[in-house]
Amino acid sequence: MILVFILFVILVIIIILPSQLTSQKEALQEVKESLVVRMDQLKKDFQYRTKELARRLQSEDLAEDEWQTLTDELQLDTSTSIDFTQVASQSDKINTSWFIAGVMIIVVAGLAFFTYQFSGSYEQVKLQIDITKALNNDSETIDKLTEKVQTEKSQQALSNLYLALRTNVELLPSNTNSWRTLAMFNSTYGRINEARAAMRMAMKLEPLNVDLKIDLVQVLFRSKEQRDLFYSRQLLTEVLKEEPENQDAMLLIGLSSYQFGMYKRAIDEWTKLLNITQPDSAINNMIKQRIEKAQQMLNDRSTD
After folding, report:
1. d(CA 222, CA 228)
2. pLDDT of 218 higher than 80
């Protein structure tokens, strides 16, 4: 559709611009020719009137002082007219043509854009209707679209999944999991503001849900704003007050401390988590690596 829009604008430019410039050039040429004729007329008129004044002076129809006054006035009027005509004849540029052509191109491009928007909106509405029907008739629509994204890895499949997630929260505004799924999708693809807003909608529905608080913390960790990092730490503190051995919260608050440069505190918090995990588990090995990294950062700071 975008290609059609671009081709349409190019076609309009090709059709309108040459004709507009040609017509303006022809009009300016006609004006220029008429000014040349006007200049000749002024010269002939001046010669005729000068001879007429001279004849009246010789026939004593005019006194010498009257003849002088009329001659001066004639010279002044003719000189002024010639000056104006010369100025007009020198303005035979096509600036106006370019201006008018530019305005016309902008107007046409604007109309083409709105036409594209209308048709694009129509396609979007049709797609949303189809997705709405699929969501109503098949509870696994989201899962199928998610699998399609993973297999095809196309922008269209990704757009369809996003539209389905947005439509799903409109159909089920009181469903916490719908808001959470939308938030996680947005967070994964860098839509932090939308992810944050969706998670807060989920938390309004279940304000005491610890898992939602953890999810919101993960969303906030992707943000580069300092206020989000502080808020995420506040949420983790609340979770650990309710569940002191919540492994997700313990891992994340250690990461939060690390982000703020509090390496000693991060080591202490991860060490607590290390003591309650299985020695041969994946999370145990990951925690050990993080502790080593924090210890290295702490040692580097001590040597500076």
Report:
1. 9
2. yes
Residue 264 maps to a domain? yes
Inter-residue contact 239 to 258 (CB < 8 Å) = no
Is the separation of the CB atoms in 74 and 46 below 8 Å?
A: yes
Residue 185: count of CB within 10 angstroms of its CB: 22
- Whether residue 2 lies inside any domain: the answer is no
Mean pLDDT of 59-79: 70
What pLDDT, in 10s, does the model give residues 101-111? 566 566 656 65
Tell me the pTM. Answer: 0.56
Instruction: Look at residue 197 and tell me if it is in a domain.
Output: yes
Pull the structure tokens for residue 7.
């081709």
pLDDT of 54-66, one tens digit each?
777 677 776 777 7
Q: Cα(32)–Cα(25) distance, rounded to whole angstroms? A: 10
What is the rounded CA–CA span in Å between residue 116 and residue 271?
A: 59
Number of domains making up the chain: 2
Q: Which of 187, 204, 230 is the last residue of a domain?
A: 230
Read off the pLDDT of residues 246-258 as tens digits, 9 standing for 90 and up: 999 999 999 999 9
The domain of 303 spans 244-304
Q: Is residue 205 part of a domain?
A: yes
